[in-house]
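Task: sequence design from structure.
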């Protein structure tokens, strides 16, 4: 498996090279519920919008990130994953409160990497983002939050059981900044994650032969088991 040479920051603010210490990254993700992949995406071609941006044209903006996400998912678990969500959002300042996946409690009681969301943060490296997380929320909210700092071009990867806030901009911009959320769930874990054919077709064209669309589910298959 091709593992990119990028840096990862853990909740404890430890800097880990993904390629050399992939197992340590997976352990940090399992323990803390999140990591930040530094300079792992590039949404700079997408300018600030004053209204909700169209999905058309956004898929190619995260094309190079497929390898990074694939390395984490398929190194953690020997199974296929569904792509359950692919959506752009406009974000500004002032968001408060925390939430998590609607199956977060069930996923938190299950060992391993069951589901994750990858939040691609827009803007260049000078744009600052912050996210509040409850690091102990696998077993329920603790009320003790930790602030995670990131920059434009980073990917915030979080387990589906994690309680976290909507990423908020710390940098003042002329308009709102964009972020793209892509969510994954172990295939067959539940019956959720159906995707409309038009979106599925676009993702299949992007990801290639390792994505399979059937019965309204878009499944990202392990390559090594089929080579």
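Answer:
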């Amino acid at each position: 498996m091709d593992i990119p040479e990028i840096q990862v920051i853990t909740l404890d603010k430890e800097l880990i090279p993904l390629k050399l210490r992939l197992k340590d990254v997976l352990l940090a993700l399992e323990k803390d519920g999140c990591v930040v992949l530094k300079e792992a995406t590039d949404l700079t071609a997408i300018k600030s919008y004053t209204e909700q941006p169209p999905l058309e044209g956004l898929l190619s903006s995260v094309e190079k990130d497929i390898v990074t996400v694939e390395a984490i998912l398929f190194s953690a678990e020997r199974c296929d994953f569904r792509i359950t969500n692919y959506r752009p959002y406009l974000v500004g300042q002032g968001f408060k409160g925390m939430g998590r996946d609607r199956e977060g409690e069930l996923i938190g009681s299950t060992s391993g990497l069951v589901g994750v969301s990858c939040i691609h943060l827009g803007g260049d490296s000078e744009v600052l983002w912050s996210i509040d997380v409850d690091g102990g929320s696998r077993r329920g909210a603790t009320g003790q939050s930790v602030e995670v700092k990131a920059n434009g071009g980073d990917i915030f990867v979080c387990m589906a059981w994690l309680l976290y806030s909507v990423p908020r901009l710390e940098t003042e911009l002329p308009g709102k900044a964009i972020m793209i959320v892509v969510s994954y769930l172990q295939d067959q874990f539940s019956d959720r994650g159906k995707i409309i054919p038009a979106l599925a077709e676009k993702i299949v064209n992007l990801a290639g032969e390792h994505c399979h669309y059937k019965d309204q589910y878009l499944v990202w298959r392990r390559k090594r088991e089929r080579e």
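Helices lie at 22-32, 66-76, 104-108, 197-207.
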